[in-house]
Amino acid sequence: MTMVQELHDEIIPSSYVILAFTQRCQCCTAVHRWSETYALANLRPSMGLGKRISNLHRIDRPKYDLPIEKRVMPEKLIPFCHSCYFPTLHDLPPPPVPPRQLLGGLTEPPKPLTTVKREATKRPTVADLMELLK
Questions:
Q1: What pLDDT digit, counting tens, does each position of 77-88 carry?
Q2: Among 31, 36, 45, 103, which is 20 to 30 Å from 53 by CA?
Q3: In the chain, what are the domain boundaries?
Q4: pTM value > 0.70
């Protein structure tokens, strides 16, 4: 259990909220409906001043016998869905960049680096160091 989950488990909700969602597929015209359950807690500000804070936390199942509020969310249009046999986006234009694009925004591979050979430098001797101290 994560620390955030533990914090939410300690908060006693004031009610539960069910959000009902609807998606309509533009490709196959299927309608998908599902709902999610949230615990609603009204929290006091930490300093005791100001407005109360409403906190919605998604839950798998309710723990307490509390009031339940149902909210219907607006229907959302999606271009294709998991039920589509042949999803298509042919009505959209092709991408403006060639599909061979590489990481970092490069469109062609970088050229190999050329190495320059340097002569090995000799190690300084005691005489060289004494010359520097003069």
A1: 998 898 888 887
A2: 36
A3: 3-87
A4: no
